[in-house]
Amino acid sequence: MSVLEVSHRGKDFTECAADAEATIRRLAGVSDDYAVLFLAGGATGQFSAIPGNLTQRGDTIAYLNTGQWSKKAIKEATRQGLEVKVVADEADSSYTTTPAPGSFTVPAEAKYLGYCANETIGGVAMPYVPTEEAAGVPIVADVSSMYLSRPIDVTKFGVIFGGAQKNLGPAGMDISIIRRDLMGHARSDVPAIWDWQVMADNDSMLNTPPTFSIYLLGLILHWIEDEGGLEAMAQRNDAKAARLYEAIDSSSFYNNPVEPGSRSAMNVPFTLADSSLDADFLAGASAAGLVNLKGHRSVGGMRASIYNAMTDEGVSALIDYMAEFERTRG
Which of this chain's residues are annotated to bind L-glutamate (predicted)? Predict the structure, then answer.
């Protein structure tokens, strides 16, 4: 039988889930001061769960607006009756920058400071954790598209959450790492499956959990461990990104719009000097075995996502294709 067929309460699967949690704790240095939860609904589900667990209607929260996913979280918090103070908004740069350290302050009454650590669509990443700016206010970070791509100091955060589908497994599952003192305060109308304390008390199994996703998560976590852990992932990812950015920056045919200090190591957007060639570029890339390069409709151009599993050879193939396309069509 496969993991899809066994009981989620049987020994085979409960050991599988426990192993996945233990491996996350080893890899990321997560102490018992934090709960690790495997939750349905992906990161978007937590846009609703986080206000429901940390606030009451009318409370104030602070947010950094660095792009599409920040805006979605802000919209949902507002819908839930919160006063959202956008303490830094990068709209003036068309979301190609991140707020400079010390350029914003967080209201003392804020229940938490939220931000998206890596904006998948815009290719923008926060280069620091704003602990000084938060001044003791719990920090809540959406790390979906950079989850376990590099070491992280969990102790700087109140909540770390993200969808598994970029670096850690299939879509549909959120992995939340939550400081335990922030749990147990959910609003009375929060659904039980999104009440962190209820889910922690039930080992993330109040409902039938996403068993196959958890099984694959465990395999991928062991792969990361076997590859040398998060330090090794960071070195590989930084090297891949540096090579791709160098190829773009050294060309007058390609351009990356993101301010260098805010560039993502996971998502690299770029445009062609002549946008009328976009369709030809994508067709040629597909013929060369390079897929999923079309940029998001809100941004346009191209976007190369180079998550943990992307090999050096894959990045080399893209760089070689870009150079050949520029030579023949530029």
Answer: 9
Q: Is 223 a catalytic residue?
A: no
Please name each of the domains of the chain with its CATH number. Answer: 9-225 (3.40.640.10), 228-327 (3.90.1150.10)
Task: Determine the distance from the C-alpha atom of residue 71 to the mean position of all C-alpha atoms in its chain, rounded to a whole number.
Answer: 15
| pTM given for the model | 0.95
Among candidate residues 69, 111, 174, 194, the one labeled active-site is 69
- Residue 77 corresponds to which amino acid? A
What are the structure tokens assigned to 325, written together?
A: 């396309």
Single out the catalytic residue among 71, 111, 166, 240.
166
Enter the DSSP assignment of 294. B
Rounded average pLDDT over 41-52:
96
Catalytic-residue membership of 11: no
In angstroms, rounded to a whole number, what is the distance separating the alpha carbons of residues 168 and 247?
28
Among this protein's residues, is 166 annotated catalytic? yes
Q: Provide the pairing of β-strand 159-163 with 173-179.
A: antiparallel
- State the average pLDDT over residues 23-51: 97
Task: List binding-site positions for pyridoxal 5'-phosphate.
Answer: 43-44, 69, 120, 142, 165, 207-208
